[in-house]
């Protein structure tokens, strides 16, 4: 099936990259400077997510000039307008681009791609700010809130993160951060949240402050999605890492100040055909609990890097060949196995973090998207980790217990059928019997505006749906329900009701036991909430 417009928009959300130089290429049709500027911006916003900034191809086909000049303007125009069964969206007939705009894009693709600037140590150092030095920070919390139950909630299009007390549901501060913060991770002590914006800006937020606020910040690239903190015993709050989409690299930093220490490029060879890829983007990063290492997914090359941070000057990196298009993932319940999606490859890669090797590559149905996944005990198959998917309604349960359930270990144990495709996130909690599955990218509003919930003790009974968007009681808007997250106690689930920037959004909190509405957080400041990260659950890998 072709890509839906919702899926295309998900993959190709606006990039923060600007500032490439115009290149006039022999053999390409003429363009005015204005046309070139329009096309460059449109390409970064809508095309780079799949075809790559340098157009060498990623989940979309390569669009290098040797190919595009041969195809010519008319062919490219009709491809952009009507799309293709291979997954190219129909930018023209969907009304997203006019014929005149498509003509500009078709000519632009026959010119050499403008290369965005690099971002190395001088640029990082220039952007780096320590607002409160570690020695000047509070010695203990200035408030009585339970720090463990504080949530960081991305207010995507406001460029803010709301710091919310999970007990009172009070917003303690709206912290200005990088643009469209993708994720927040809690430091291992629980004192800090580290957030990363789409624009590569990291903010270190100190939860000891009465009004939690930024104590250090840095910009580690022009486009980024991932940040993590050291988890290994003895290294709590010592080292931070962030991964960039552009330039393709990761950087190790001081955990207390974000001072950049070491940048490592990810440019290199793909695992399958062993061809050079100029922009392998850094996707999910997790901190190992078994060694002083970060586990870094390199998307386009399909390599998983185990980066040992115990001696940064003599950096040891173990490279595991997995499969291209590594994206998101999380730990199994023992925190030994990192379960991660090679999403466009329809596989789940399993890394044994103790033995430092690939444990399995498990084939699954079209485009698995676990977020961090969900761990629970299947009454029949024992401990499992589950993922939902973008491309179909399956919820795939994978056995994770090689000791006592060897025959199902790292194999698909069972498949549940959810509401539909377009799912991004799935969640449960060790104290709960519910498994929650969102479907924000499903084209049917009845599905994207509700969530499915399964009873873990009776999985064969199928799911019930809860009308989360209706409970938020907002006006018009797409109101996609996205990313369930538990509170620390495991008796509440929080959902984002994500509308447009100029429409009303909300956070809906459901009582886990009764599955009834418990609370709605809304108001003018709650703009486009997406990811929600509970301090305790995030740092203890509870999902
Ligand atoms: Fe995400 C996680 C990348 C679109 C919300 N997203 C991640 C991670 C990556 C990633 C690499 C894992 C980080 C980690 O664990 O270290 N996301 C991308 C994309 O490249 C993509 C497809 C397109 C883009 O241009 O960004 C994309 N993501 C989206 C969205 O459209 C979402 C719904 C809203 C948004 O912010 O744009 C979205 N992504 C999230 C969230 C997480 C996430 C909430 C963390 C989930 C968790 O429970 O930890």
Automatic annotation (TrEMBL):
<keyword id="KW-0408">Iron</keyword>
<keyword id="KW-0813">Transport</keyword>
<dbReference type="GO" id="GO:0050421">
    <property type="term" value="F:nitrite reductase (NO-forming) activity"/>
</dbReference>
<comment type="subunit">
    <text>Homodimer.</text>
</comment>
<feature type="domain" description="Cytochrome c">
    <location>
        <begin position="15"/>
        <end position="113"/>
    </location>
</feature>
<keyword id="KW-0479">Metal-binding</keyword>
<keyword id="KW-0560">Oxidoreductase</keyword>
<keyword id="KW-0349">Heme</keyword>
<keyword id="KW-0249">Electron transport</keyword>
<dbReference type="GO" id="GO:0020037">
    <property type="term" value="F:heme binding"/>
</dbReference>
<keyword id="KW-0732">Signal</keyword>
<keyword id="KW-0574">Periplasm</keyword>
<dbReference type="GO" id="GO:0050418">
    <property type="term" value="F:hydroxylamine reductase activity"/>
</dbReference>
<dbReference type="GO" id="GO:0042597">
    <property type="term" value="C:periplasmic space"/>
</dbReference>
<dbReference type="GO" id="GO:0046872">
    <property type="term" value="F:metal ion binding"/>
</dbReference>
<dbReference type="GO" id="GO:0009055">
    <property type="term" value="F:electron transfer activity"/>
</dbReference>
<protein>
    <recommendedName>
        <fullName>Nitrite reductase</fullName>
        <ecNumber>1.7.2.1</ecNumber>
        <ecNumber>1.7.99.1</ecNumber>
    </recommendedName>
</protein>
């Amino acid at each position: 099936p072709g890509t839906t417009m919702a899926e295309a928009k998900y993959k190709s959300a606006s990039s923060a990259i600007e500032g490439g130089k115009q290149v006039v290429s022999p053999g390409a049709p003429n363009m005015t400077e204005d046309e070139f500027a329009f096309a460059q911006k449109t390409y970064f916003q809508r095309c780079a997510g799949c075809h790559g900034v340098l157009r060498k191809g990623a989940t979309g086909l390569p669009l290098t000039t040797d190919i595009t000049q041969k195809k010519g303007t008319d062919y490219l125009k009709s491809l952009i307008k009507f799309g293709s069964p291979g997954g190219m969206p129909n930018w023209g007939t969907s009304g997203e681009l006019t014929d005149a705009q498509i003509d500009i894009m078709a000519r632009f693709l026959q010119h050499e791609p403008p290369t965005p600037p690099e971002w190395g140590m001088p640029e990082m150092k220039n952007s780096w700010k320590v607002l409160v030095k570690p020695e000047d920070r509070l010695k203990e919390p200035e408030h009585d809130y339970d720090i463990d139950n504080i949530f960081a909630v991305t207010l995507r299009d406001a460029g803010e993160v709301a710091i919310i007390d999970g007990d009172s549901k009070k917003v303690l501060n709206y912290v200005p951060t990088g643009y469209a913060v993708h994720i927040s991770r809690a430091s291992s002590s629980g004192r800090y949240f580290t957030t990363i914006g789409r624009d590569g800006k990291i903010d270190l937020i100190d939860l000891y402050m009465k009004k939690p606020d930024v104590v250090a910040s840095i910009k580690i690239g022009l486009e980024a999605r991932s940040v993590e903190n050291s988890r290994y015993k003895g290294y709590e709050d010592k080292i931070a890492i962030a991964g960039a989409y552009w330039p393709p690299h990761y950087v190790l930093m001081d955990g207390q100040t974000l001072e950049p220490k070491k940048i490592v490029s990810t440019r290199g060879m793909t695992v399958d055909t062993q061809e050079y890829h100029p922009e392998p983007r850094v996707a999910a990063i997790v901190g190992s609990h078994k060694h002083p290492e970060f586990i870094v997914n390199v998307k386009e090359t399909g390599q998983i890097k185990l980066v040992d941070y115990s001696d940064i000057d003599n950096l040891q990196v173990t490279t595991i060949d997995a499969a291209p298009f590594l994206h998101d993932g999380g730990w199994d319940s023992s925190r030994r196995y990192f379960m991660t999606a090679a999403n466009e490859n329809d596989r789940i890669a399993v890394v044994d973090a103790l033995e430092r090797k690939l444990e399995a590559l498990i084939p699954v149905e079209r485009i698995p998207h676990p977020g961090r996944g969900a761990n629970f005990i299947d009454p029949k198959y024992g401990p499992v980790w589950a993922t939902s998917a973008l491309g179909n309604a399956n919820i795939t349960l994978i056995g994770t217990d090689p000791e006592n359930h060897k025959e199902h270990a790292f194999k698909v144990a069972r498949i549940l059928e959810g509401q539909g495709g377009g799912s991004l996130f799935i969640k449960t909690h060790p104290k709960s019997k519910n498994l929650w599955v969102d479907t924000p990218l499903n084209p049917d509003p009845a599905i994207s505006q509700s969530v499915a919930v399964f009873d873990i003790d009776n999985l064969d009974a199928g799911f019930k749906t809860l009308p989360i968007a209706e409970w938020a009681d907002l006006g018009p808007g797409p109101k996609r329900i996205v990313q369930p997250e538990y509170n620390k106690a495991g008796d509440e689930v929080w959902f984002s009701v994500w509308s447009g920037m100029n429409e009303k959004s909300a956070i809906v909190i459901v009582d886990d036991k009764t599955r009834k509405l418990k609370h709605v957080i809304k108001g003018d400041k709650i703009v486009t909430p997406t990811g929600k990260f509970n301090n305790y659950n995030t740092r203890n890998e509870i999902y």
